[in-house]
C-alpha cells in the first residue's frame, strides 16, 4: 500500500500553523510507503518529499503546475494495487477539485481522502467576490461528495458540511505531534527580547490575524505600555508597525517558538473571525503556556477550565488577565491540559484503521 499526501503550498519546512499540521500528519501517518508532494518556490532534498517548483506563491502559478503534480503522483503509484491519495485542505479548493476529477476518471482504483482544515466556502464568502465564493461552493461540494472520505476538524464544522453539502464527514480534529514538540530543543532567539511581553503567532497577511493584531495594538498596547509590557509577533510577514512596543520577529523556527512560549507572559488570541482550529492555541497547550482568547479564538478546541486559560471578548477582562498572569508563577503542573484529543499520532492511527476497513470491504 502506498500513500501520497498532497499540499498545494510549502508544508516542509513548515512556516505556518497549517504547514505544521500537514507535515505532522505526514510524519505520523502509520504507513511505510508514503510520500509528501508539495508546491513551493524553494527546492529541498528531504527524503520522501517531492517538491514541485513554482515561480511565485500565486494561484496562477499553482494552476500551471497541477499537471506536474498529477504526473508525479502517477509515477509514484505505478503498478501499486492499493493507493491512497490524501489531499490537504488549506489552499483553494479548486486544486483538489482538479486532482479528484482526474483520479476519479483515469485511476478509479485510487482511494481519495480530502482532509479539510475549514469550510472554505465560508472563508471565500467573507473575503472574496461573489463569483469566487460561488465557484468555491461548487468545487467544495464536489470534493466533499466525491472523495471516498472527507474530514472535518470540529463538530461545528461537521454540522456545517452536512448542512451545506448533505455529506457526513469523519471528525479528525486539528492535531500536532505532541511528543516531538515536547522533546524539541529550545533555540534562543537572536534578537534581544524585552523583560515582559505577550505573544501573538500568525501572519499579518491573513485577515483574521490582521484584525487581531490591529485590535491588540489599538486597544491593549496603550494600557500595557504603562506596565512596560511589549507585544512580540511571529509569522511569515515583515510588517513594520512603527512602535518600539511592537516587536515583529517575522518567521521563527519551531525551537525558537518554544523558547518564546516559555519567556512570554502569555499567548493572546483575540480572534473575532476565524475558520477551523487555531494551531497557536494547541501549541500553547502543549508547551503549557498561558492563553487568553476570545470565544471565537478557542472555538472547536476541547480544554479543561484552569487558571491557565482565560476566555473573554471584553477588553477590560483581557487586560486584567494579562496583569494577573504577569505576577503569577508559570508552568505549574496543575494547569496542564489533557492532550489526548489533539495527539496527531493517535488520531492518525485511528483514522488509518477507519480507512483500512473501507479498503478491505470495498
Question: Characteristics of this structure?
Answer:
362 residues; alpha/beta; 7-stranded parallel β-sheet; 3-stranded parallel β-sheet; 13 strands; 42% helix; 16% strand
List the helices and strands and how they pair.
Blueprint: E1 2-7, H1 17-28, E2 34-40, E3 49-53, H2 59-64, H3 66-77, E4 83-88, H4 93-106, E5 110-115, H5 120-127, H6 130-146, E6 149-152, H7 155-165, E7 170-171, H8 178-183, E8 197-201, H9 207-224, E9 230-234, E10 246-248, H10 254-263, E11 267-269, H11 279-286, E12 291-293, E13 309-311, H12 315-327, H13 344-361
Parallel strand pairs: 1-2, 1-4, 2-3, 4-5, 5-6, 6-7, 8-9, 9-10, 11-12, 12-13
